[in-house]
Write a structure and sequence with these properties.
Layout (H helix, E strand, L loop, with lengths): L2 H9 L12 H24 L6 H24 L4 H18 L10
Helix pairs in contact: 1-3, 2-3
């Protein structure tokens, strides 16, 4: 499955208010789901001594799926191809790596 295929199929499940004209809802959803990923990792560190079990890995995988869904929804709301977003991101990272600025800060390095 390509990222664009995923994006199109995921969008068919979008039921948020004013889907297609509502950037706020999926953006807030992304923040919430990313927080859930972080919270699960935090609890692994706090409660399980940093040991990642298969069960915890599966739980994080599910949350990452939600992160992906909201990322795809944001791209759709913006009229962007998720595949293009991913490709341009890799191109930007490769350029930064070639120039030795992966560890720098700022959007335009």
């Amino acid at each position: 499955m390509t990222l664009d295929d995923y994006q199109q199929r995921a969008w068919k499940t979008a039921i948020h208010p004013n889907a297609g004209q509502n950037l706020v809802y999926p953006t807030l959803g992304l923040a919430g789901e990313a927080g859930e990923v972080a919270n699960k990792v935090k609890k692994i560190m706090r409660d399980d001594g940093g040991t990642l079990t298969d069960t915890k890995r599966s739980e994080i995988q599910q949350e990452l799926g939600d992160v992906l869904w909201y990322t795809a929804a944001i791209a759709t709301e913006l009229g962007l191809s998720l595949g293009t977003v991913a490709e341009e991101n890799l191109n930007r990272l490769a350029d930064r790596q070639a120039r030795g600025v992966l560890r720098g800060s700022g959007d335009n390095r």
